Amino acid sequence: MNIHEYQAKELLAKFGVPVPAGYAAMSVEEAVEAMGKLPGPLYVVKAQIHAGGRGKGKFKELPPEAKGGVRLAKTEQEVREAAHEMLGNTLVTVQTGDAGKQVQRLYVTDGVDIEKEFYLALLVDRATGRVAFVASTEGGMDIEEVAHSTPEKIHTIDVDPATGFMPHHGRAVAAALELDGDLAKQAQKVASTLYAAFLGTDAAQIEINPLAITGDKQLMVLDAKVGFDSNAMFRHKDLAELRDLTEEDPAEIEASKYDLAYIKLDGDIGCMVNGAGLAMATMDIIKLNGMFPANFLDVGGGANTEKVTAAFKIILSDPAVKGILVNIFGGIMKCDVIAEGIIAAAKEVNLSVPLVVRLEGTNVQQGKDILANSGLPIVPANDLGDAAQKIVAEVQKAA
C-alpha cells in the first residue's frame, strides 16, 4: 500500500525525521490558506499522486510549455495559479504511463534554500533478506540515470536483523553521502530515525529524494515516498486509513477484497493462475506465442468457487481481454474444486470469449472430467506450452 508525500512526511516526522513545514490542500482556497500558515517568502506547490517524476511531468490539459507538478511560488497569486492549473488536471510522468493520473490533492510546503541534494532509501534486500540503506551523493530528479550510467555512485548498507541499527550503520550512511563533521552526525540521526520508522510501520520502502543540505547547514527530507507491506496492514489500522482508493485501479481494488493478487497489463489474454512464479511463466509463454498477457492474477493456494468467480469477473472487466487462459497446479488446491469454480464462474458471467484450461496436480483427473462434462466450450490443455498455443489459436480464430 502506498501513501501520498504529505502523508509520508507527517508520518516520518512522528519518528523525528526532519521535514519542512507543509499542509495538504484539496482546493485552491485551501492551498492559499496553507500558504498563510507558512513563514515564506518561498513556497512549493506539489501535485500529490502515487508516482514519481512529478517535477518533470506534463499536464494533458495544459500547453506543452506549462510547468510540471512541482512549482515554486513567492506570492499568493502564484500559489493560486499553480493550484488552479494542477487540481483536476491529468499529470503524465515517466512512472504514470501515457494515461497519467488526475491530481486531486496538493501539498504546499515551505521553500528551502538547497545547497546539495542526496538520495537515501530503505528497502528489503531480497538477496540478503535484510533491511538495507541505499545511498548516493547524486540525489534529485535524475537518480534513475545515475543508477543506470554510474552505478558505482550507489551504495548499499545492510542491517543485520539480529543486531538492528547500530552506530556503525549511521557512520556508513554518512560516509556514503561523503559527509563529515556536524552533517555526518545529522546523517547518522536521520538514518537511525528512518530505520525506526521502517520497522515501526512495517514499511516495504522508504525513499527520500532528495535529502538536502539547506543553506543553514541542516539535513532536511524534501520529498518522501513510503509504501507498506500490505500483509501487515492488520497491525496498522491507522495506516490503512491513509489509503487513497482514487489512486488505484478499480479492478485491483476489487481483487484485494477477495485476497487476489491482480495487476492490469496492456495485453489481450487474461490469465488466472495459482502461484506468482507460475503466473510469471504463464505470461512469458503467452508472449512467446505471439500475444500479450492482459493481467497478472494469482488466486493463491486456497482458492474456492467464490474466489474463482471473482477472478473471472475481474479479468472480464477489462474490455481488451479476447481470451482467458487458466493455468492451475493443484497442491493444497484441488483441481476438482477449481474445475467446479471455473464452471460456476463461466455460467455466472456468461462467458463470451475463448477459455483454455490447463490443470495439473491433486485430483487432476476428476477436475478434467468435470470440465469435459460441463457442456461449456472449454478447451482443455495438457501442459503449459499446449495451453499457450491453444489460447492464441482460439483467439485468432474468434477474431
UniProtKB/TrEMBL annotation:
It catalyses: GTP + succinate + CoA = succinyl-CoA + GDP + phosphate; succinate + ATP + CoA = succinyl-CoA + ADP + phosphate; (S)-malate + ATP + CoA = (S)-malyl-CoA + ADP + phosphate. It comes from the Bacteria. SUPFAM superfamilies: Glutathione synthetase ATP-binding domain-like, Succinyl-CoA synthetase domains. Mg(2+) binds at residues 209, 223. The keyword Nucleotide-binding applies. One of its GO terms (biological process) is tricarboxylic acid cycle. Residues 9-254 form the ATP-grasp domain. Its EC number is 6.2.1.5. Coiled coil: none annotated. GO terms for cellular component: cytosol; succinate-CoA ligase complex. Succinyl-CoA synthetase functions in the citric acid cycle (TCA), coupling the hydrolysis of succinyl-CoA to the synthesis of either ATP or GTP and thus represents the only step of substrate-level phosphorylation in the TCA. The beta subunit provides nucleotide specificity of the enzyme and binds the substrate succinate, while the binding sites for coenzyme A and phosphate are found in the alpha subunit. Heterotetramer of two alpha and two beta subunits. PANTHER family: SUCCINATE--COA LIGASE [GDP-FORMING] SUBUNIT BETA, MITOCHONDRIAL, SUCCINYL-COA SYNTHETASE BETA CHAIN. This is Succinate--CoA ligase [ADP-forming] subunit beta. It comes from Stakelama tenebrarum. The lineage of its organism: Bacteria, Pseudomonadati, Pseudomonadota, Alphaproteobacteria, Sphingomonadales. The gene is sucC.
